[in-house]
Design brief:
- The protein has 5 helices and 5 strands, in the order H-H-E-E-H-E-H-E-H-E.
- Strands 1-2-5-3-4 form a 5-stranded mixed β-sheet.
- It has a single domain, classed as OmpA-like domain (60s Ribosomal Protein L30, Chain: A, 2-Layer Sandwich), CATH 3.30.1330.60.
- The protein is an alpha+beta fold.
- About 45% of the residues lie in helices and about 15% in strands.
């Protein structure tokens, strides 16, 4: 076995090279222009909203009655969405949970928060920072369809993803 004694200058050069490699690997991707972000969001199905851009992933982020966990389709949709939003340079996400009007207001408020949290935790699992995700539960306060019909109630049991374009 042989040992090689390296000079301080050689060690410093190796350390500098390692730092350059590490910094090169961890630098942020180039900024995406606002127009490109908006075009990318529209391509994903986002629509302008009063406080940013919103996406309701339709069937993929709908929930069965009294269920707060993501389906397999929902997990796949969130995974794809998370990756694309990062590529567009989106840094913050808001997750809004909703319910139908079956059950008490208090119960639905909690269920909508749990739905939002379920999606938020999956976003964290696929690489988003927890601190970059805002969560809200609206219960049955913001229906998108008629709660008098089963099909309408199904559409109201949803999570909406919202982002800001800067």
């Amino acid at each position: 076995m042989s040992f090689r004694i390296e000079s301080p200058l050689r060690r410093a050069a190796i350390a500098a090279l390692c730092c350059a490699i590490i910094v090169g690997c961890t630098t942020a991707p180039p900024a995406v222009p606002k127009e490109a972000k908006i075009a990318g969001l529209k391509k994903l199905g986002f629509a302008p909203a009063p406080d940013g851009w919103e996406l309701s992933l339709g069937v993929k982020l709908l929930f069965d009655s009294d269920v707060d966990s993501l389906s397999n389709d929902g997990r796949a949709a969130v995974t794809d969405l998370a990756r694309t939003l990062r590529q567009l340079g989106i840094e913050r996400i808001r997750v809004d949970g909703h319910t139908d009007n079956v059950g008490s207001d208090k119960y639905n408020a909690g269920l909508s928060v749990r739905r939002a949290e379920s999606v938020a935790q999956y976003l964290v699992k696929v690489g988003w920072r927890d601190s970059a995700i805002e969560r809200h539960g609206f219960g049955a306060d913001k229906p998108v369809a008629d709660n008098a019909l089963p099909a309408g109630r199904a559409q109201n049991r949803r999570v909406v993803i919202a982002v800001q374009v800067e």
